[in-house]
Amino acid sequence: MNALKLQILDLLKEDARRDTELLATLLGVEEATVKQAITELEDDHVIVKYAAVVNWSKVEDDKVTALIEVQITPERGRGFEGIAERIYLFPQVKSVYLMSGAYDLLVEVEGKNLKDVASFVSDKLSPIDQVLSTKTHFILKKYKQDGIIFEDHEDDHRLIVSP
């Protein structure tokens, strides 16, 4: 991948709402060049989706997110791919990652409440033959996501000293 495309990706990752005219100005190239590069990145599925990072705690508090560590037995001939696909097809699953370390997959699940997530784990995830064990961690609060800090914070944390 060429340097221009990498620069475009960096700028769009920062703010996906930047238009091609602004990107061209920032990069010092023609707008047509930027449009062509973005089209190629989309066609090659390098750019998969444009999305907003939302601080859901400011909008609604009802959703529950959990990270589930899953140990699995890989399938003959397909390894982890088949079981990962079976898991990510559930609508409650937001992300699935193959991991190194003590467990194989990290599954991010979203539900209406704790019972909803627990029900998913016990009724859908655990019964899968290749699943050996699960460990569920509920997210209590998000401080930062995708490089975005959610909470307002003071820059100066020094204690006031008075004479």
TrEMBL record:
Presence of keyword Transferase:
no
> Which UniProt keyword terms apply here?
DNA-binding, Transcription, Transcription regulation
Q: Does the keyword Transcription apply?
A: yes
What is a GO molecular function of this protein?
sequence-specific DNA binding
Q: Where is the HTH asnC-type domain?
A: 1-81
The record's section on PROSITE patterns has: HTH_ASNC_2
- Pfam families recorded: AsnC_trans_reg, HTH_24
Q: Which SUPFAM superfamilies match?
A: Dimeric alpha+beta barrel, Winged helix' DNA-binding domain
Q: Which Gene3D superfamilies match?
A: 3.30.70.920, Winged helix-like DNA-binding domain superfamily/Winged helix DNA-binding domain
Q: Which domain of life is it from?
A: Bacteria
Q: What is this protein called?
A: AsnC family transcriptional regulator
The taxonomic lineage of its organism, from the top, reads: Bacteria, Bacillati, Bacillota, Bacilli, Bacillales
